[in-house]
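Hey L., structure's done. Input below.
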Amino acid sequence: KFVFCLDTAELEQGLQKLFYQNQWTKIYCSEGGLKALLPPNNLHDDIASCDASVTSCESLVARTGSILLSSAQQGRIPSVYAPVHICVAYTSQLVYDIKDGLERIKQKYGDAIPSMISLATGPSRTADIEKTLVVGVHGPKEVYCFVVDDGPLSPGGGT
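Output:
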């Protein structure tokens, strides 16, 4: 599911509304900048019993509709272990193709490239021999991507 936000205030409101509508009270997040946007009483430090996890990402890949993640976003677990993954990204992180996203990682980290880089393109899907589709077998059953406008024409955005 995709949510576009004009600014961080709209992001905060959107996250709070999502938590309230789904009655999620245990949100896992260990990224300081993102934690500041979340209601403190909803923060939960146990990934095994959380309702959802919130992470950032390296890039958003337009061509495939994928989220490019690395172990730099809270390690390997939060984006796949929680029942719901919420990714917060910015318009400045949009790239056209996977190659562009990987090049950004090389530029950002140099020789210290994260040990895990993965692409998430929604919940996993599989089918049995009778072609019965099952969604969310591996990883989260739901994925939300909140994209915040931080472009040069956005309020408070640009360089």
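The chain has four helices and eleven strands. The mean pLDDT is 87.

-- N.
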